[in-house]
Amino acid sequence: xxxxxxxxxxxxxxxxxxxxxxxxxxxxxxxxxxxxxxxxxxxxxxxxxxxxxxxxxxxxxxxxxxxxxxxxxxxxxxxxxxxxxxxxxxxxxxxxxxxxxxxxxxxxxxxxxxxxxxxxxxxxxxxxxxxxxxxxxxxxxxxxxxxxxxxxxxxxxxxxxxxxxxxxxxxxxxxxxxxxxxxxxxxxxxxxxxxxxxxxxxxxxxxxxxxxxxxxxxxxxxxxxxxxxxxxxxxxxxxxxxxxxxxxxxxxxxxxxxxxxxxxxxxxx
Length: 269
Fold this sequence. Notes:
alpha+beta; 7-stranded mixed sheet; two-stranded antiparallel ribbon; 8 helices; 9 strands
């Protein structure tokens, strides 16, 4: 008597993956491939963690470098800004080649006071004239633009009003030509918050950290004047404050530039 026996099928291996089976790989080959893939995945994850920990250990150098380039923590800048291109009056000194004599401390700082309307008087409490323009400015875009402008001199004068209400600074840059000065005005109109002049240090006056200040840039032929004014107590201006008159008074520091025009044209401004 013969009996028909059904053949037992070999249980399907846990390592038989349809895609790999279709590729003709045996169960033991599939197992080996999965193990190798798992090991490689762990190695990639480990390398990523090491890189992350390493970057944390540097103290976020890119952020620190960006802060330093922007003038460092607490770099002071105006709360508002206005700028003006060079007027026709200064065409005789539109190029430094026509006004080659360097500025001197005597012509810039001979006057110890600046007098304006409404009995406003600004007293000179600090002064500086040097050849390193980059040392008196901060902000990567501004520094690059000033370097392109071939700045050779930077002067800063710090004033305080006779009543102690205001602190003001005038910065004058000696540039290549009026085109360079006008381009810097344009740069500052959109970028003054990312680059400005450093405050001149003095024991007699200073801009309060975080206080409200107003700034302006004036192209004067191949020179650029930067005006910076604020209340000495850092408070917001009130109806009693007249920053317009204060600005006009501070611009009395530009007399040296006007004299340069007269020296070339022979005519009073």
